[in-house]
Amino acid sequence: MTNAFSYACKDCEGMEACPASFVAETTDEVWKLVELHAQIAHNESSTDWDSETREYLGTLIKPISV
Questions:
Q1: What is the rounded distance in angstroms from the CA atom of residue 24 to the CA atom of residue 19?
Q2: What is the DSSP letter of 10?
Q3: Please, are residues 5 and 24 in contact by the beta-carbon 8 Å criterion?
Q4: How many whole angstroms separate alpha carbon 2 and alpha carbon 62?
Q5: 20-47 per-position pLDDT tens digit
Q6: pTM for this structure?
Q7: Coil, helix or strand at residue 24
Q8: Which of 5, 12, 30, 65 has its CA 20 to 30 Å from the CA of residue 56?
Q9: What is an example of a Pfam family matching this protein (predicted)?
Q10: Host H or E run for residue 63
């Protein structure tokens, strides 16, 4: 039974050395954490992401049981 969602930055192509990972109750929460992390840790603005990038990142958000 899925009751949370996770994202690990190292799963993203080119970010293999990044140790950040997030777990939250909803995908919306995870997205907010991913966007904030990108800004703080990688000096990247999520507003610059095109739809293809967002779609790719979305595939990295996984349902998990905690």
A1: 17
A2: G
A3: yes
A4: 10
A5: 999 999 999 999 999 999 999 999 999 9
A6: 0.90
A7: strand
A8: 65
A9: DUF1059
A10: strand 62-64
pLDDT digits (tens, 9 = 90+) for 41-53: 999 999 999 999 9
Residue that the structure tokens 């966007």 belong to:
35
Going 30 to 31 to 35 to 41, the CA torsion angle's sign is: positive
Q: Given its phi and psi angles, is residue 14 left (phi above 0), alpha (psi -120 to 50 degrees) or beta?
A: left
- Total count of residues recorded for the chain: 66
Question: Which one-letter amino acid corresponds to residue 8?
Answer: A
Distance (Å, rounded) from C-alpha 63 to C-alpha 1? Answer: 9
Burial class (CB in 10 A: 0-12, 13-18, 19+), 48: exposed
CB count within 10 Å of CB 7 equals 22
Q: How far apart are CA 31 and CA 46, in angstroms?
A: 10
Which residue in the block uniquely carries the two structure tokens 């610059």?
Answer: 48
